[in-house]
Structures are given as C-alpha cells and as structure tokens.
C-alpha cells in the first residue's frame, strides 16, 4: 500500500441546523466556540470548521461575530480556522460571503445546489464563481463542499475557466437527507471522480460519520467529525463534546496505523502558504 500523508481531522463544532434542544453541549457563543475549538485541537484536530451564532443562538454570517471567534481561537492555538460560507439555507449569498473578508486560511465553497432536508441549499453558478474569485483574491484556500456528484464537475469547471488552480481540496458531505447518501460505494464513486492531485476529506452525516471515517483513514483521505454532522456518540447516546468525536477518530487512526497531522503539517498537505 502507498505511504499515506498524515491524517487531517476537521472538527465541525456548531453548524447552522443543530440546536441546544437537540444537543445540550452545542457551543454557541464566541467564547464557547473558541473553547471547543481548543479542546478539539488538543484532541487532535488540525482544522476547525466554524458557523457563527448570534446572541439568541441563531445562525449568523455576521463579519464581526466571525472576527471575534477567529481572534479568540487564535489566542488559544494555531488550529486552522475555516469559516463556513454555506451559512444556513436562508442566508443570502452576500451574507454568506462575509467571513471570507477576514482572510482566513481556508473557507468552505459549496459547489452546487441540492435538497437539504425539507429545504433547498442554493448555489448558482454565478455565486459559486463569485465566491471562488473572492477567495482567490484574498488568498483563502477553498474547501470544496460536495453534496452530490455533479458538484465535482462544477469544481472542475472552475479550474477550466482559470478561476481556481489545483490541487483542489474536496469535502464529501455524505448523508444529508435529500442529497447523496453515505454508503461506502458512494464515497468510492466520489473519490474516483476528482482530479488525481486533489486532497479530500469526508463528512459523514449522522450514522454515516464513523464508518466513513474508518474508510477515509484507510483510503488516504481525511476526516471531518462534529456536532454539525452528528450529535451522537453511538445509537441514541448523545456525544458529550465535539472533542469526544475527534478522540474517536484519533484512536481509529492509531489502530489503522495512520499518523495524525498537526496544524502545521496540515498546512503543508493542503498547500496553505
Ligand atoms: N448549513 C448548510 C446549509 C458549509 O458550511 O459550507 C451549508 C453548510 C455548508 O453547512
Ligand atoms: Zn458547515
């Protein structure tokens, strides 16, 4: 078997859809999000994927809230700060793009439209291109979020048009109700469609989280876990923290003989300058 890069673990700690009613340990305030990011960093995460919440705990893409979160995280550790540009389904594209203006090292770039539970997650070609161009101007590495197969083609088109340069980094978000499920064959199929010099991670939603993490560790991919994707530790048992979910991935990696990347090692793997 080819020697694999070290494993990058992303902690997606809040999301836009989960509430405290569903997961009592969900971090909401900038302080809570920064503390949770630090705990995930100590557990082995090298990237934190962040969704901001307002004072009432509702999703917000407000620049100032993201700024506060970014500064609070940076004061604690060097974990890679990756804000969401996906936001919530009801945010406008202009609202969603705000955290990119903070020039984070990375940000997400959703590469197409899909059903998202009862809603529609809108990403027109016009706005995918606008988001990508702004990220390039500001030196932000996009993590291309793929919820359906066609989104890989949309990302390749960005390269063809000269908007993005490879190597690309993909996140296969598998198991969102209404979009692609997260069976092993779904991940294999997705992985086989991306340019060969790409890096990729997988975010398995709900019950898909741990099986897909195990597969990605063994396939040379990377892994995302956290309350945004899955609030449970096991069937019917809520996780006590995001760090608990990160710790499980670290244990799996160890058992499978794959080393875990530090943030600086993750920067090298992802070509983040
Ligand atoms: N909350 C979803 C509608 C991202 O962060 O870039 C979109 C999402 C993707 O979570
Ligand atoms: Zn997200």
TrEMBL record:
It comes from the Bacteria. The keyword tRNA processing does not apply. Its cofactor is Zn(2+). InterPro entries: Aldolase_TIM, BKACE. Pfam families: BKACE. Keywords: Metal-binding, Transferase, Zinc. GO terms for molecular function: 3-keto-5-aminohexanoate cleavage activity; metal ion binding. This is 3-keto-5-aminohexanoate cleavage protein. It comes from Helicovermis profundi.
């Amino acid at each position: 078997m080819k020697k694999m890069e070290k494993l990058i673990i992303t902690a997606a700690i809040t999301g836009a859809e989960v509430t405290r009613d569903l997961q009592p340990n969900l971090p909401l305030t900038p302080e809570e999000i920064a503390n949770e990011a630090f705990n995930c960093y100590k557990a082995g995460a090298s990237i934190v994927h962040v969704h901001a919440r307002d004072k009432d705990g509702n999703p917000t893409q407000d620049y100032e809230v993201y700024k506060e979160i970014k500064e609070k995280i940076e004061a604690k550790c060097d974990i890679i700060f990756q804000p969401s540009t996906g936001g919530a389904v009801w945010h406008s594209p202009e609202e969603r793009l705000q955290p990119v203006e903070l020039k984070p090292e990375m940000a997400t770039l959703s590469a197409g439209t899909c059903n998202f539970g009862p809603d529609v997650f809108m990403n027109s070609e016009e706005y995918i291109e606008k988001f990508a161009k702004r990220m390039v101007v500001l030196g932000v590495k996009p993590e291309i979020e793929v919820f359906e197969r066609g989104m890989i083609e949309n990302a390749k088109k960005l390269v063809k048009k000269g908007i993005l340069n490879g190597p690309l980094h993909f996140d296969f978000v598998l198991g969102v109700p209404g979009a692609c499920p997260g069976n092993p064959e779904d991940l294999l199929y997705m992985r086989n469609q991306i340019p060969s010099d790409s890096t990729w991670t997988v975010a398995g939603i709900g019950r898909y989280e741990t099986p897909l993490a195990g597969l990605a560790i063994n396939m040379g991919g990377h892994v995302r876990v956290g309350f945004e994707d899955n609030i449970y530790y096991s069937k019917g048992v809520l996780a006590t923290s995001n760090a608990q979910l990160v710790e499980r991935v670290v244990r799996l990696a160890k058992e499978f003989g794959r080393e875990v990347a530090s943030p600086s090692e993750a920067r090298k793997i992802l070509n983040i300058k």
